[in-house]
C-alpha cells in the first residue's frame, strides 16, 4: 500500500492548493470582509478571492464543475471506516479528513482503527488524512509518531494548533519537539490553517498593537507557525510525486466552538477580536509564500 495524496492526474510538479473550510464563514463578526453571499454567489466570491476549493462542513456541496470540494468526518470504530469513506467517495469528495477515536484507546485499538482507514482509502481510491486533533488517537505527538512506525504509509491532516497549544510545544524547546515530529511532518497530505498561542487554540496574527497586552503574551507564535508550516510543506515535497496536491485550508472557528476569543467592544457587547475571513485571506498568502520558498529548498 502506498501513500495516497490528492492527485490531479498530471505530470506537474507537486503543488499547493488553498481551499477554505466553510466553517470559517460561520458567525463572522459585524463588518467582516465576507459579504454574506450564498450559493453560486458565495462560490464566485471565494474564487475571486483566490480560493481554489472548499472543505464542506455541512449541507450540500457545490457541483464539482463549479468548485472542487473535499469533506470531513469522524471515525469512531473500525466498522465506520469503509461506509464513511464510500459515502464521501460517492458524493464526489476529492479527499477526506477525519477525526479518529477519542484518545482513550489502547495501542491495539488505535492500530485497528488506522488499519481500517488505510484499507477503506485503498478500496474507495479516496485519499483519507487522519487529523492531528485533541480528543482523538493523534492527540499527542508521541503516540502519533508510534502510528507512523506501525504504518509508514499513513498520511495526516496537520492541524498543529492542537500540539502547539495542547502540548505547549514551546515548553522545553520548540526545535527539539519539531525534530521529534519529523515522521509526522513527512506524512502531511493536508493542512488545516489555524495559529495558536501556547495558551489559546486560535489567535489572530495581525493588528497586535490594538489588542490588550494580556491577549498577546511574549512568545512569537506567528514565527513559530511559519516554521512549523514550512517544515510540513517540505515533508510533503520530499515524498510527493507528479500531480500530487497539498491542500491548505484555513479553519478558523467561531466563539460558539470555543475557538475565537471574545472581548468587550465599545458598546460593552462581546465581539470576536478579529475578522476570521480577513484572517483566512492572510493565511492564504502566507501559505503560498511558504510553499514557494519550500519548493526552492526541497
Question: In brief, what are we looking at here?
Answer:
With 298 residues, the chain is of the alpha/beta class. It contains nine helices and eleven strands. Helix 2 runs parallel beside helix 3 (107-124) and helix 8 crosses helix 9.
3D architecture notes:
By secondary structure, the protein is of the alpha/beta class. It contains nine helices and eleven strands. The protein has one domain (6-297): TIM Barrel, CATH 3.20.20.150. The protein has helices at residues 39-48, 81-91, 107-124, 141-150, 161-164, 174-180, 182-185, 221-239, 276-297; strands at 6-7, 15-21, 53-55, 69-75, 96-100, 128-131, 156-158, 188-193, 244-250, 262-264, 270-272. It has an eight-stranded parallel β-barrel, surrounded by four helices. The radius of gyration is 19 Å and the shape is globular.
Shape: globular
Give me the CATH fold name.
TIM Barrel
> How much of the sequence is in beta strands?
15-25%
Largest sheet: 8 strands, parallel, barrel
**Topology as a string of helices (H) and strands (E):** EEHEEHEHEHEHHHEHEEEH
CATH superfamily descriptor: Divalent-metal-dependent TIM barrel enzymes
Average pLDDT, rounded to a whole number, is 94
Main-sheet strand order equals 2-3-4-5-6-7-8-9
